[in-house]
């Protein structure tokens, strides 16, 4: 658990119309996604204790003291007494056995959803995504086939692939293409199969177009 005392003398944050919305003064960890943080202080607050419980996913990490993330900051934020404390594993969330890791990436279940964290260059992000979601990706492709009005068979899927290749493949930025290629490669490396074969870039393009 990381903790600190924080105060916010007339702290204001103006949202810049992007995700995430602007946050006040908050505590987080370098390994965590942008939307995982302690309570956020804004306006004018006296000293208040901020805490954040987390399961370590790296051998080395860093506490981040943030203010104005995702927006334009006004006023001031003060932090003191920053500490990192080990707490009991009893009733911890997510449970250690539920967290799956691959390099800097990790996933865990949350209220019926899968929370996935990836990082790095586009291909690396995709590879981590594909590796950790290798079981779910073929299931998602099957749902894509049904949503596109077809059935989950090779002939129908090949028609979707032909259309995606001709109409959409060359419209993606190189960064997106590299990430999608990484998804296919990572899923294959972890044993994913779709229609009794390995995945490739075009399969992921079909799924992306479906979104």
Write the layout of secondary structure elements.
Blueprint: E1 2-15, E2 26-29, E3 43-52, E4 63-66, E5 71-74, E6 78-84, E7 100-102, E8 105-110, E9 113-117, H1 122-132, H2 136-147, H3 154-167, H4 174-189, H5 201-210
Antiparallel strand pairs: 1-3, 1-5, 1-6, 2-4, 7-8, 8-9
Summarize the structure.
This protein is α+β, with helices and mostly antiparallel strands.
Descriptive notes:
The chain is α+β, with helices and mostly antiparallel strands and 211 residues long. The protein has helices spanning 122-132, 136-147, 154-167, 174-189, 201-210; strands at residues 2-15, 26-29, 43-52, 63-66, 71-74, 78-84, 100-102, 105-110, 113-117. Helix 1 (122-132) runs parallel beside helix 4, helix 3 (154-167) crosses helix 5 and helix 4 (174-189) crosses helix 5 (201-210).
Helix/strand structural class: alpha+beta
C-alpha-based Rg, rounded:
21 Å
Please outline the major beta sheet. Answer: 4 strands, antiparallel
Helix content range of the residues, please? 25-40%
State the total count of DSSP E strands.
9
Number of helices: 5
- How much is the average pLDDT? 87
Proportion of residues in β-strands? 25-35%
């Amino acid at each position: 658990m990381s903790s600190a005392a924080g105060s916010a003398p007339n702290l204001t944050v103006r949202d810049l119309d992007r995700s995430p919305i602007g946050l006040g003064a908050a505590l987080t960890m370098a390994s965590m996604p942008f939307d995982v943080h302690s309570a956020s202080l804004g306006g004018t607050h006296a000293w208040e204790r901020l805490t954040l419980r987390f399961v370590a996913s790296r051998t080395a990490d860093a506490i981040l003291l943030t203010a104005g993330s995702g927006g334009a900051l006004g006023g001031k934020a003060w932090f003191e007494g920053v500490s990192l404390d080990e707490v009991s594993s009893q009733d911890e969330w997510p449970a250690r056995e539920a967290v799956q890791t691959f390099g800097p990436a990790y996933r865990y279940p949350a209220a019926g959803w899968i929370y996935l964290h990836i990082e790095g260059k586009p291909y690396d992000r995709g590879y981590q995504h594909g590796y950790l979601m290798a079981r779910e990706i073929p299931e998602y492709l099957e749902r894509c086939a049904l949503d596109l009005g077809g059935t989950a068979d090779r002939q129908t899927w090949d028609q979707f692939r032909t259309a995606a290749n001709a109409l959409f493949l060359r419209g993606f930025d190189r960064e997106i293409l590299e990430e999608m290629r990484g998804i296919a490669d990572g899923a294959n490396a972890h044993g994913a199969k779709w229609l009794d074969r390995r995945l490739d870039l075009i399969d992921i393009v079909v799924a992306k177009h479906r979104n």
